[in-house]
Amino acid sequence: MKINYILLELIVYLGLPYFIWTHGRGFIGDYYAMLLSTIPAIVYTIYRFMKDRQFNMIGFFIISSLMLSSILDLLAGSAIQMLWNSVWLSYAFTSIYIFSMIMQKPLAIYLAVEFMYLQGYSREKSKKLYFMKGNVKLFQFVTAIFVIRGLLMNSIMVWLIIDHGVDAFMHLIIVRKALGIVFSGLIFIGFLFAGNKAMRLVKEPNIEWSKLEAE
Questions:
Q1: In the chain, is it the N or the C terminus that has fewer CB atoms within a 10 Å radius of its CB?
Q2: Per-residue pLDDT tens for 80-99?
Q3: How many domains, the chain?
Q4: What is the pTM for the complete model shown?
């Protein structure tokens, strides 16, 4: 089942875009071929959103990002501008993560809270736990991984666009997918470490929440 899921994702995010891009650009031009190649991923993401009933902050963040990206694609007017728009949008999202770290409210905490809520835990209690002084540093580290991912991906995107122009499109899809897999693993490990570290506090006897918050 998991293998089928992986194969489906490879087809949707790599196979179909490659087919549409390589076979369509000669007939309808670079821009429209690029636009059409994004449709499979959009449809699949919405399908997964509805199927998994991700009606939470994470789900709506994904859908909102997808909608914003699609609007920018439609407004781009050219293939090269469409590529640059994806770079600027990615930088904007990365800056949000950076800002959350500066404000000492790392987005990783809110993502963890939503995940724990899906497991049946109270949002308020999870937030209270994760925002304890020692735990915030752990989630700052996880958020930093998101930032590094964004900066690295964006830097590679800029280099490829400058070097290859619109021909960088498929390179970008492959690179983003490959780096996405690598960083997803790192982020998962980061969340696992931070979450386990935080949960240890709950199991420690004779520790009051108020005292922990004051530390």
A1: N
A2: 999 999 899 999 999 999 99
A3: 1
A4: 0.79
